[in-house]
Amino acid sequence: MSLRGALLTQDLGCGELVANAEPILRDTVVDAEPILRDTVDNAEPILRDTVDNAEPILRDTVDNAEPILRDTVVDAEPILQGTVVIAEPILRGTVDNAEPILRDTVANAEPILRDTVANAEPILRSTFLHTQGSLAVREHKSYIAGLVAATAVVMEALKPVGTRGAP
């Protein structure tokens, strides 16, 4: 019975099925090897010819594209310079207008953030101290350490510009 027939009728055990499949697979590989070898042998000169034919086409494409790209750059340069000249005062005005708004925002946020930190610290300490078990302690320690680090960053950011970095 063929391998296909055995699979379809399922009348062979697994061991017998493997034993029957092995010679069929060997024969398939033996039969396929010369076909694959011929395919590679036949494809090689075709691929070489393709590369040989494509090389001058690609070279001409690059040669033809180079002056077009140069002209594009030459044409685009004054347009880009004009854009920068027009955009610069607009961007300066935006920064000049935004600076006092940002300063006010920081000034308004500072007391709120300070109060939040002051209110949160005892709650977080209490939570940490009441935690039981080494795993829970370890998890809350890293959580508290993260909050302490974040608080330090916020506090540093809230310092007046000349005093940042000072204890």
Notes on the structure:
- With 167 residues, the chain is mainly alpha-helical.
- It has one domain (3-130).
- 89% of the residues lie in helices and 0% in strands.
- It is built from 3 helices and no strands.
- The chain has helices at residues 3-9, 14-129, 134-158.
- Helix 2 packs across helix 3 (134-158).
- The longest helix has 116 residues, at 14-129.
- It is flat.
- The N and C termini lie far apart (89 Å).
- The relative contact order is 0.03.
Query: Ends: how far apart?
Result: 89 Å
- Runs in which pLDDT lies below 50 for 5 or more consecutive residues are 132-137
| Dominant shape | flat
The structural class is mainly alpha
- Main β-sheet: number of strands, strand sense, barrel status? none
Number of helices: 3
Structure summary, number of beta strands: 0
Mean pLDDT: 76
Q: Helical percent range?
A: over 70%
Overall number of domains: 1
Radius of gyration: 38 Å
Q: What series of H and E elements makes up the topology?
A: HHH
Task: Estimate the strand proportion.
Answer: under 5%
Give a brief outline of the structure.
Helix content is 89%, strand content 0%. The protein is mostly helical.
